[in-house]
What we know:
The protein is an alpha+beta fold. It has helices at 3-17, 27-50, 105-112, and strands at 53-54, 64-69, 73-79, 82-86, 89-91, 96-99.
Amino acid sequence: xxxxxxxxxxxxxxxxxxxxxxxxxSEDNFNTLDRAHQKIRALRNQLAECQWISVEDRLPEYDTxxxxxxxxxxxxxxxxxxxxxxxxxxxxxxxxxKLLPAPLKAISEKVLDNTVAPVTM
Length: 121
């Protein structure tokens, strides 16, 4: 189920259990509503992380690696009010950026345990 489907599903739960004809709200219904609201908040945060942000609206925090767009999609680091691919290689013409996704936990742990070699470029 993708984020949009999950949001729709949670909305249906809220519609069902928030029906004023079900008053007083049972503890089970209250707990179900509460879980649906928590899930919606979490999904909204996930969705916000997936969206491109204009550099005119907001810039990333300093010393953060992000995906940038300047006609191409490039991973860059934001330092000294500019985006860099490497310490001396500035990326020009950046119009949008977004956070990098979190690494896959299982793979990250295996790299740390030296059971999988990290990818180098």
